[in-house]
Amino acid sequence: MIAPLWEPDDLAAPSPPEREERRVPRSGRITRRGRRRLLLGLMVASIGLSVPIWLPRLLATLPAFHISEVRVIGTEHISPDEITGLAAVAPDASVWDDPATWEARVRVHPMVREATARREGFHTLEIAVVERRAVALVATPELRPVSGDGYVLPLEPAYASLDLPIVQGPVEMESGFVTDPETRELISALARMDRTRSDFMSLVSEVGPAAEGGYRFLLLSGAGAEVVLLPRDRPLRALDRVSIALGQIEDRRVARADARFGGQVVLTRVEER
Hints:
- The chain is α/β, with parallel strands linked by helices and 273 residues long.
- The chain contains 8 helices and 13 strands.
- It has helices spanning 19-22, 32-60, 80-87, 100-107, 157-160, 181-196, 198-201, 235-247, and strands at 69-73, 112-120, 124-131, 134-139, 143-147, 166-170, 173-174, 177-178, 204-209, 215-219, 227-230, 254-258, 266-269.
- The chain is elongated and about 95 Å long.
- The N and C termini lie far apart (152 Å).
């Protein structure tokens, strides 16, 4: 019997090469479905980022959001009608319009320190006003109220019922502001006292520079002292020492309380003057 020239196993198809060696890891490639998802995500993100830009512009064109009422809050000495007139809101204006223009117009008023316009509902524009607050009266030569930043306010003291201390001596003005640096510093100190020591400020009749340096406060009758002297440096802290010193004595006949010395308060009785 003649043996075959080849073995049966030689007729079998050669085994394919190892596919694992040529297969790209699934985590390292982007499928067609993954590309579609990525493109869709980028489109959604771009729309979301652009919404704050185009949506208010679109809403501003709709008649449903036209302003029919302008509300003014925060005024004390200014008429709300005066603020409304300054804002000059057009009949076809929308609550979605940029409020910066209205705010800038209102800030022109000399009594206005800050103004903020915001929408309220579908048809109402609210303008919140912060007025300049008068802290003292200055002689220009007539007595005029002045704010903490040294601006002389267009108010009549008698008409506005202002009960304020008088800054002694005439002052010079330029563009509505007190120009003397020392007087401006004193007015700034009065503004800080008005915010945190209003009870003391209600007792002050006049205030001005002291002959020996610092500030001299002339108080109303029954205030516990006739005169209080405070340093220019940290007057509020010195005022606290005065309050403590006056609270520790029984004799209320104090002519002068001097707190210009470091950490001390010197009290002078009426008969010792």
